Amino acid sequence: MIVRTLGQVAELCGGRLVDPAFAEKKIEGVVIDSRKLGGNSLFVPLGGANVDGHEFVAGALQAGAAASFWQRGREGAPQGALIEVDDVLEALQKLASAYLRASGAKVVGITGSNGKTTTKDMVFALLSASLRVHKTQGNFNNHLGLPLTLLSMPEDTEVAVLEMGMSDLGEIARLAEIAPPDVSIVTNIGESHLMNLGSRENIARAKLEIASGTKPGGLLVHNGDEPLIPPVLNELRAADRLPQGLRTFTFGLGSENDDYPTSLEQQGAGMRFTARGEGEEVFELPVLGSHNVTNALAAIAAAREFGVSVSKMKEGLAGMQLTGMRIERITGASGLTILNDAYNSSPTSARAAIDVLAGLQGYASKTLVLGDMLELGENELRYHREVGRYAGQADIDAVYAYGPLSAESAKGASEGLGTDRVRAFTDKEQMISHLRAHLSSEDAVLVKASRGMKLEEVVYALRDQPLIDRDEA
To answer: How far apart are CA 223 and CA 290, in angstroms?
Structure first.
C-alpha cells in the first residue's frame, strides 16, 4: 500500500497541507469509510447521495487517521492534519496515478461487456507464476474503485491487473487516464448498458476508449469474433485517436483470429484445450464454457507479452482462483450440482451459460433458472424472449423464470420445451420450494440473472436445504 509523508501526498495530489508542521508525518494506506480505518490511514471524505464524508473527518482523526483530505472553501474544518484539495475525488485519482507512476508497475487493463472479472482472474493467475502482480478485488472497477485498488498495491508490484468498467461514454477514458495500460484487453461487446448508450455500436465505442488510452507502442488484445470492433478502431484511427505504434492481437473461436482453440473439450468441472498460438501444448482450465476458453486465450496473449513461459502459464491456469458467482460449481447438501452464475446477466452471457448447461453430461436432468436481465433499454422484452427461445432449443430439461421481464423468457422457452417444462414465478420462495420438490441429487441446475435480482438466494437455498421427497411434495 502507499506509504508517504503528508508533504509528499499533498504534492502528488495537487493539494495544500494546511499545517506545514505535519509535513513529515506518514500515511499508510487510504480509506473512504471511517469505520474501516487502519493505523495512520489517509481518510478521503467523499460526497454521496445521502451522506457527505466531511461529516466524519473529525471522528476519523480522533480514531487514529493520520490525516484527511478537506474540500477547499468548505467551512468547519476540524483541528488536525488536513490536506486541502479542490476536488476530493479528483485528488484521490491524482494520488493513485502518481503512486502508480512512481512504482514503475506495468498495467494490464481489461474491459468488455462480459467476462472482465474472469479474464482478470486468469491474467492474474498466469502472471503470478513469474511476476509480482496486484489485481482489482471484487468489482472495484470504476472511477473510485480503480484508484483504491492502485493505492492498496504493494510498491514492489511489477504488474497491476485492472478491471475497467463503465456505464456511459467517457468513463473508461478516465480510467485509462488514471492508469494507462501497457496491455489492453477487450473481452467482447454485449448488450449491457443499452439503456444508457442506446446501441451496441455506442457500447463498442465506450469500451474501445481503452484503446485510445493505451500507452504508445502498447498491445491491444481484442475479441476477433466481434464484428463491431474493427469499424470503431477504424473510426479512432481516422480521428488520430489511437496511440502511436499500437499493436493489435485478436482471439476468439474463429480460425481467422491470431489465436483460437484448435481443440476443445469439456472435462468434469473444467475445460481442456489446445490453441494455435501454443501448438500442441494442452491447457487445463478449472471453469466451464467455451467462452471461458476464449477468455483464457486473451489472458495467454497478455502473459506472452510479459515473457511468461508456457509451462508457467499452464501451472497458473490450472491453479487459478475465480471470483465467486461466475459459473461457480457447488455441490448441495443433497448432492445436487449447482452452477452459480448469478453475479450478472445479459443476452450474450445468458446464451453462453445455457451452452454450458446444455454441454453437461451424466446428469438425470438439467434445469435452468433465469432471472431478469437489467439495463437493456427499450428492447428488453425482445431480448428476454430471445434468450428464452435459445434455452428452449438447447439440450436442457426445464426452465424456471423469476421476475417480470423473465416472464417473457418463459414464453420464449415454452415454444421449444412446451408449457409443462417451463414455469414463471413472481415469488422467489415459491420458486425455491418448487425447485426443491422437483430436483433430485442426480440433477444439475444453473442459476443466471442480473445482480439486482439476488438469485444467489436461490443458490444458497438449494445448497443448504434438503430436497423435498417427490412423494411428499
So the answer is: 14
- Comparing C-alpha atoms, which of 209, 210, 186 is closest to residue 294? 186
Bridge-based pairing state of the strands 328-331 and 337-341: antiparallel
Q: For 368-384, how does the pLDDT look when each residue is reduced to its tens digit (9 = 90+)?
A: 999 999 989 889 999 99
Which cell is 442 given?
442426480
| Dist CA 235 CA 64 (whole Å) | 52
**Residues sharing a CB contact under 8 Å with residue 455, sequence separation 6 or more, in sequence order:** 342, 369, 371, 402, 428, 447, 448, 449
Is 327 a residue whose pLDDT tops 70? yes
Structural domains for the chain: 3-85 (3.40.1390.10), 104-318 (3.40.1190.10), 328-464 (3.90.190.20)
Q: How far are the Cα atoms of 107, 258, 471 from residue 306, in angstroms, in the given order?
A: 11, 17, 59
Stretch 270-280: mean pLDDT? 92
Q: How far is CA 375 from CA 144, 410, 434, 454, in A?
A: 21, 19, 28, 15
pTM attached to this predicted model: 0.87
Give the helix ranges, DSSP H, for 240-342.
290-305, 310-318
Q: Is the pLDDT of residue 440 over 70?
A: yes
Give the C-alpha separation, 187 to 291, whole Å: 10
Q: Cα separations (Å) of 197 from 156, 168, 203, 375?
A: 39, 6, 6, 10
- Residue 470's pLDDT is what? 55
Look-up of cell digits 422437483: 438
> Are residues 209 and 172 in contact, defined by beta-carbon separation less than 8 angstroms?
yes
Beta carbons of 415 and 392 less than 8 angstroms apart: yes
**DSSP letters of 381-437?**
HHHHHHHHHHHHTSS-SEEEEESTTHHHHHHHHHHHH-GGGEEEES-HHHHHHHHHH
pLDDT at residue 473, as a whole number: 46
> Apex CA 57: angle with CA 53 and CA 59, to 5°?
120
Query: Which residue has 448488450 as its cell numbers?
Result: 191
Statement: residue 225 has pLDDT above 90: yes
CA distances from 181 to 106, 213, 219, 287, 394 (A): 7, 7, 9, 27, 39
Q: Please, what is the average pLDDT of the chain?
A: 94
Cell output for 137:
478485488
Burial class (CB in 10 A: 0-12, 13-18, 19+), 312: middle
What pLDDT score was predicted for residue 468? 81
Rounded CA separation 40/438 (Å): 56
Could you give phi then psi for residue 399, rounded to 5 degrees?
Answer: -130, 130
At 307-318, the pLDDT tens digits run 999 999 999 998
